[in-house]
Amino acid sequence: MARQHAERRSHARFDTAVELEGRAHPDGVVARMVATDLSLGGLYCVSSVDFPEMTRLAVRLELPAGKPGNGEPLDLEAVVVRHRPVASVTGSRRYEIALFFATMNDAQRERLARFLAVA
Fold first, then answer.
1. Mean pLDDT, consecutive 10-residue segments, the chain of 119 residues?
2. Residue 102: which of 70, 80, 73 has the closest Cα?
3. Backbone angles phi, psi at 39, to 5 degrees
4. What are the residues whose beta carbons fall under 8 Å from the beta carbon of 9, sequence distance 6 or more?
5. Most buried residue, 13, 39, 77, 97, by most Cβ within 10 Å?
6. Which residues partner with 42 through β-bridges?
């Protein structure tokens, strides 16, 4: 069950696991990520690839099926605002990354809002 954070932020944040992909440019490496904190303004995730702060990413959210607004991936543009390496049990490199959604049209915002309303 998703839980809303009680912080002073522009957008309410929800604890919900969502898989996503991110890449810095069309021919760049695709990073597999799992978001654990999602809002209309951005997300916090763990990534298989590190990206420097201020990197623009093409992000594809894989919203779980069976909830309103889902069924197709949600493609957005985001900017890395924080990143840091984290220890991994398997020894593979992982990175905590905070992303800010840089552009979102009305249809994308409405679809994400519908998902968060039932998350």
1. 45 68 90 91 93 95 70 90 88 91 93 81
2. 80
3. -145, 180
4. 39, 41
5. 97
6. 100
The tokens describing 72, both together, are 């197709």
Is there a contact between 31 and 71 (Cβ–Cβ < 8 Å)?
no
Could you tell me the CA-to-CA distances from 94 to 48, 84, 114 in Å, in that order?
A: 5, 9, 30
| pLDDT at residue number 62 | 87
- Dist. CA 41–CA 25, nearest whole Å: 21
- The model's pTM is 0.80
CATH code of domain 3-118: 2.40.10.220
Distances (CA, A) of 31 to 53, 57, 87, 105: 15, 10, 17, 24
- How many Å apart are CA 95 and CA 88, to the nearest integer? 9
